[in-house]
Amino acid sequence: MTPSLYYCTQQCLFCWRAQSGDLQVTWDEMKLPTLNQPEDIVNASIKAQEKILSGYKGHPRVNWRKLTEAYQPRNVAISLTGEPALYPNISELIRTYRQKDFTVFLVTNGTLPERLSKLTQEPTQLYISLCAPNDQIYKKICRPLIPKAWEYLNKSLELLQSFKCRTALRMTLVKNHNMDNIDQYAKLIEKANPTFIEAKAYMHIGFSNLRLRFDDMPQLAEVKTFAEKLAEKTGYNIIDESTDSRVVLLSHKDTNDKVIKK
Fold first, then answer.
1. Which of 69, 103, 116, 167 pairs as cysteine with 124 (C-beta 3.0–4.6 A)?
2. What confidence score (pLDDT) does residue 81 get?
3. What is the mean pLDDT of residues 230-249?
């Protein structure tokens, strides 16, 4: 789910959401409309989950145990689209989900470090998107809408170690765009020292079709090669992968045993 559906501080080439300027429609992506209250957002998101599942009740091959579980969600990923840290009540939104016994994953692009530093309620796991090894590539692929965005992202990376929750760097990899400069990526990872690193292939879906080609999607083998080079430079271990999602998961060597046991 997301509290900021069409609003973001970046216009990433690989993003599947509709951005201002797509299909000749424009709006101010930095100016959120009238805000909903956290309790209303949480309750509405649960109802939306029920609505999208309703059609499965009529399918003869449905797994009723899984369907029943899906009607009682216990994890929320505050991500999906837009930049959730733009929502000023993000701490209260996380707290409201936690009060309803949810685990909470928060995914941010890291351009609003002051919002992260002022979180009064930590998520279960905090992700920062790291999709470029340096400022030059960052401006080309992430296309920030605010000045000093690369500087702010680096501040967020530095903040990551101050969190008590699990942390992760999430990398969306686009072929021939951001899959080189392993040494520079390694230095940024050292700065953040996350629990996990997720290296994931760009998917040619949604409005990203207007900006990138089908051939810009790396194969799983290419993602694995990238992850192996990253592991060699950082000391992280590859602990899992998903063929369908073309994603490879790495974990810090000091937490690897604990993560596997969980």
1. 103
2. 87
3. 96
CA 209 to chain centroid: 20
* Chain mean position to CA 143: 17
Does position 150 have pLDDT exceeding 90, yes or no? Answer: yes
CATH classification for the domain delimited by 22-261, as one of 3.40.50.2300, 3.20.20.70, 3.90.226.10, 3.30.160.20:
3.20.20.70
- pLDDT confidence band for 254 (50 / 70 / 90): low
pLDDT at 255: 55
CB 185 within 8 A of CB 229: no
**CA-closest candidate to residue 211, choices 30, 22, 28, 24:** 22
Strands (DSSP E) contained in the chain are 75-78, 103-108, 125-129, 166-173, 196-201, 237-242, 247-251
DSSP characters over 157-222: HHHGGG-SSEEEEEEEE-TTTSS--HHHHHHHHHHH--SEEEEEE----GGGGGTS-GGGSPPHHH
* Domain range list for the chain: 22-261
Model confidence at 261: pLDDT above 50: no
CA–CA gap between residue 175 and residue 179 (Å, rounded): 6
Output the pTM of the full model: 0.91
Burial of 11 (0-12, 13-18, 19+ CB in 10 A): middle
Distances (CA, A) of 16 to 28, 122, 250: 18, 27, 25
Residues present in the chain in total? 262
